Every structure is written in C-alpha cells, then in structure tokens.
Amino acid sequence: MADTKEQFEEVIRLCREIYEKKLEDYGLSWRIMRPESITDQILIKAKRIRSLEIKKKSRINEGIKPEFTGIVNYGIIGLIQLYLGYSDNTDMTSAEALRLYDQYMTETKELMYAKNHDYDEAWRLMRISSYTDLILTKLNRVKEIENNEGKVNISEGIDANYKDIINYALFGLIKLVYEQEHMPDTR
After folding, report:
1. Residue 58: CB partners within 8 Å, gap ≥ 6?
2. Whole-angstrom Cα distance, residue 30 to residue 90?
3. Cα(first)–Cα(last) distance of the chain, in Å?
4. How many CB atoms lie within 10 A of CB 31?
5. How many CB atoms lie within 10 A of CB 78?
6. In angstroms, rounded to a whole number, what is the distance separating the alpha carbons of residues 105 and 166?
7. Is residue 63 within 8 Å of residue 176, measured between CB atoms?
8. Are 33 and 136 in contact (CB under 8 A)?
9. Which regions of 36-135 does DSSP assign to beta strands (E)?
10. C-alpha span between 124 and 128 (Å, rounded)
11. Which residue of 47, 107, 108, 187 has the lowest C-beta tally within 10 Å?
C-alpha cells in the first residue's frame, strides 16, 4: 500500500498543478457551470479516451493522460459546485478554490484508501480501458440522477459517483505514469 499512496500522491500533485495553472490562465470561469454541464464536460473527456483506445491514434496532439487529468479536475470542480452551487460570477478567490480542491481531493483519496483496503488493490489487475468504461457507466448514472432532480431510492448520490470517477481516472494515470501499460501512441 505504501507504493499506492506514493503513486496516488504523485498523480494528485500533477493534477493539482494543472488545476492551479488553469486557475492562473482562466481564473474561476468554471463557477458559472451548472452541475449538468460539468457532467457533460467529463463525459466528453471519457468519450475521447475511449475513442483513442479503440482507434489507437489521434489527430490532435494530446494523448490520454491529459484527458484523465481533466476528468480528475472536473470531478473536483463538480464536487465544489455541488457544495456551493453555481454562480453567475467568480465569487471566490483562487486561494479558496485551491483550498476546496484540496478538501475534496482529500475526501476522495480517503475513500480510495478505504476501498483499496477492502478490495486488496484489485484495480491493479484491471485494464485502463476498464477504468474508461466504468467512468462512462458512472457518468450515465449521474445523468440519470440529474434527470431525476437528484432523487435516488437506494443508490449513491452524484457526489459519490464523482468521487468514484475521480479515483478511476487516478488509477488510469497511475498505470500510465508508473506501469506503462501498453496504450496506443496518440501523439
């Protein structure tokens, strides 16, 4: 588990670094996004990963890693938006956005550590394409919940699904960064 924690922390650091740089470039423009739009943004990224996995090449000079990173960061943004609601303006500072990022990322990784204990690192036996399919499945669930105005009978809510999506994307990043699983060269 020590390697898992180290690897998790490293890919989280990489994602947070991108989030921070995007805050510098774009500010808090994402604050205007409703949760449904964030779900669709994550969907677009997951569909592109699946497309690259199937086609094995890309016409855009960006590979799968940036898409998994985007899924992680939009997942955290989704959790923030669920908590705060959307806004018609950028109503917080970048420092507050980073604090909330860290808060929700900590909650998400603690969930992974608990599940990882129970599942005994089964995710390491999975293919990256399975993470992609699970992310797409979770997104379909989120869309159903959103279409039902957030009501569920027995299932987990949107926030739990976002956390699972983030963790699957982090698993994909760990495999791509550390295990160099055979993936199509999309550059």
Report:
1. 52, 186, 187
2. 8
3. 32
4. 19
5. 28
6. 9
7. no
8. no
9. none
10. 9
11. 187
Using only C-alpha atoms, what is the Rg of the chain?
16
Helices 64-84 and 158-174: crossing angle, nearest 10°?
160
Distance CA(43)–CA(139), nearest Å, equals 7
Q: What is the pTM of this model?
A: 0.92
Joined tokens for residue 53: 């996995």
Angle subtended at Cα 183 by Cα 177 and Cα 187, rounded to the nearest 5 degrees: 85
Question: Measured between alpha carbons, how far is 57 from 187 in angstroms, rounded to an integer?
Answer: 8
Q: Which two tokens stand for residue 41?
A: 């943004």
CB burial of 147-174 (b: ≥16 within 10 Å; e: otherwise) equals eeeeeeeeeeebbebbbbbbbbbbbbbb
Exposure of 36 in the CB half-sphere (CA atoms within 13 A): 8
Are residues 111 and 163 in contact, defined by beta-carbon separation less than 8 angstroms?
yes
